[in-house]
Amino acid sequence: MNWGKHILLTLIAILLITFTIASFMPSNPNSYKDKDIPNAKPVEPWITETIPSGGSIFSVLEKFNLPLKEIAILSFRFGDYIDVTTIQPGDTLKVLLDEGKQHISKLMFVQEPTKRHHFVVQGDSLVYTLEALPVILQKRMIEGVMQNTLDATLLSMGISPRDKQNINNGLEGEINFQRDARNGDRFQVYAEERIFEGKTLPGRKIYYVQYSGERTGSHELFRYEDKDETSVVNGLYNLQGKSRSSAGVGFPLGSIHVVSKFGKRLDPFFGRWANHQGVDYRASYGTPVYAVANGSVTAAAYSGGWGNQVQIKHPSGLTTQYAHLASISVRKGQSVKKGQVIGRVGSTGRSTGAHLHFGLIQGKSFINPTNLKMVGAEKLNDAQMIEFKRQQEQIRREMSQNNNQVAVGNIRR
After folding, report:
1. How far is residue 222 from each of residues 212, 245, 386, 404, measured CA to CA in Å?
2. How deeply is 336 buried, as exposed, middle or buried, from its count of CB atoms within 10 A (0-12, 13-18, 19+)?
3. Domain containing 69 — which CATH number?
4. Rounded to whole angstroms, how far apart are CA atoms 149 and 131?
5. Looking at residue 271, which CATH number applies to its domain?
6. Whole-prediction pTM value?
7. How far, in Å, CA of 39 to CA of 249, rounded?
8. Is 32 part of any domain?
9. How many domains would you assign to the chain?
10. In this predicted model, what pLDDT tens digit does every residue of 201-243 receive, in sequence order?
């Protein structure tokens, strides 16, 4: 009996020891592997690239050694949502490849910290969504005294080159700066700024400009704003609704969004590098296309890969080209005026979808159309003038209310 009791107590002790040891054992035998790497980080699936100086979406995506035709098509579709003229060195492009690392699955493009452009690849198309963080909109009056030149004065006040050019362009139609401007002339600029995390983001929207001097007199400009933010009519006008500058050609469309620039790009049809001989503008099927200047029609017919195209010879000797049209509204030999409808946007010829191809020909060679100085309306029409008067009154009320937020620029030579 004693012997049996000893055996039973021994078995109980062994079981207790076994359960005690087991309680300290990990339930997952692989968990020791995790403990061996206490600071292990998950692999980042997105590949981040920065647009280099002189680079493009084409050149960045080419690094991934994917089918060039796929890159060409996706880059072209990318331009449907992002005006490619706004892409700058330092902008960020993030790429997510599929599981086999053979194709692009998603893209994310970041131009400024408040906006992220998301793209999901579906075949030859992109599904686009915009992620926008809230910003504070602040309107204020900026005042300054001209020293040396208006350009130099504005830049010394911290006005960006782009905003400076908008202001200067607006006033040059009213004032002869070379003849009449003097040091000590005064100016005001009423602008809307975007504030994010306490910092002013680049790019102001200029609503009002006033310049006064002993020889120049006093001049005011107000912003006219159409419902379409890409409208070529948007900009600064004098009190009579006349444009800041009429020294230039018009735009071929009523609103401007560049899908593909002039120069080297991957051809979306053949997937190889080629020279793009014009500028492609985004536009819906049937959108009116305008002659950018007076001239004589030298071609108005179907022409192979160009599809339905119109060519206009201008007094300057340059020829403008309008291609892939759905329809043509002029005939060869006809004289046309600046702003006259010469056709409608389409997708004829070698085209991936409705858009306008705009080319510029000098002699027998295509040159960059951005060499042309394009301006919007020279004068607002009657309907626009009614709206312009209303917008003027609103701007004046806002300036009066914000009078206590004036920022005076201290200018030095």
Report:
1. 15, 14, 14, 21
2. buried
3. 3.10.450.350
4. 41
5. 2.70.70.10
6. 0.77
7. 62
8. no
9. 3
10. 888 899 999 999 999 999 999 999 998 888 989 989 999 998 7
